[in-house]
Design brief:
Length: about 250
């Protein structure tokens, strides 16, 4: 049923289902990343820790288990508590930002960031050597000859999410589903429309002036016609009077 004017009686916001779907997508992406991260860490700790590195692709991919007390890619070793607090802050910020989420690309981006942050945060809270000081399990090493830092699934998700966030911000995509470029274009179009409307009104004024001039000219023409008619009538009267005078003079003569 609908109220007068076609408004739904329930008063539901049409944007809410859209936001609910985006948040659901964020949760799904974050859950998948978190599950992959924790399962992979469990397996490598159980089967590869304290073992020789496992070469998956010679010269390109090696699995070797290390414990990382720092941030992603072994950055900032020795600042475990600081990075734990930062990770908690990131998780809270993402959850708060999700309230305005209506963008599909941002749902995927925030899902990657959230899943990666929670994955590493779980290690920092529950792994040895102490709660909130745990070392993160890293095990993926690419191109060993380059000595590229060892990382894990959560680190990869965080980096991919960060790259996507920069790209979306650069392209003008907003969390709420709008796009900054479109808003600017719409504003410019509205200004041009207003300018066009003013120009149309301005262009219409000469037509009005021309109409007034035509009316004025017609009125003046009618006035001139009336004057000429009166002048001709007076001339005729004078001719008649002169003719009558001559006739009377002849009669008298």
């Amino acid at each position: 049923m609908q109220a007068a004017g076609g408004a739904p009686l329930s008063g539901a916001d049409p944007a809410r289902p859209n936001r609910a779907r985006r948040i659901a997508l964020l949760v799904v992406v974050a859950t998948v990343i978190y599950a992959l991260d924790q399962v992979s860490k469990f397996l490598v700790v159980k089967f590869l820790e304290h073992e020789e590195p496992l070469t998956v692709v010679p010269g390109a991919l090696v699995l070797t288990v290390i414990r990382n007390a720092g941030a992603a890619f072994s950055i900032g070793t020795g600042m475990t508590i600081v990075f734990t607090v930062i990770a908690l802050t990131v998780v809270v910020a993402i959850v708060r930002t999700a309230r305005q989420l209506r963008s599909l690309p941002w749902a995927i981006t925030l899902g990657l960031l959230l899943g990666g942050a929670v994955g590493n945060l779980t290690d920092r809270i529950f792994r040895s050597p102490a709660p909130f000081q745990g070392h993160v399990v890293d095990f993926i090493q690419v191109f060993p000859v380059t000595r590229f830092p060892v990382f894990n699934v959560a680190d990869s998700a965080i980096v991919c999410g960060g790259v996507l966030a920069v790209f979306l911000a650069w392209r003008g995509y907003q969390i709420d589903g709008t796009r900054q470029i479109e808003e600017e274009t719409s504003g410019t179009g509205a200004e041009q429309g207003a300018a066009g409307h003013s120009a149309a009104e301005h262009a219409a004024e000469p037509s009005g002036n021309e109409s007034r001039e035509e009316v004025r000219a017609a009125t003046q023409g009618e006035s001139r016609g009336e004057v000429l008619s009166d002048t001709r009538e007076q001339a005729r009267e004078q001719v008649r009077e002169q003719a009558g005078d001559r006739s009377r003079e002849r009669a008298d003569g």
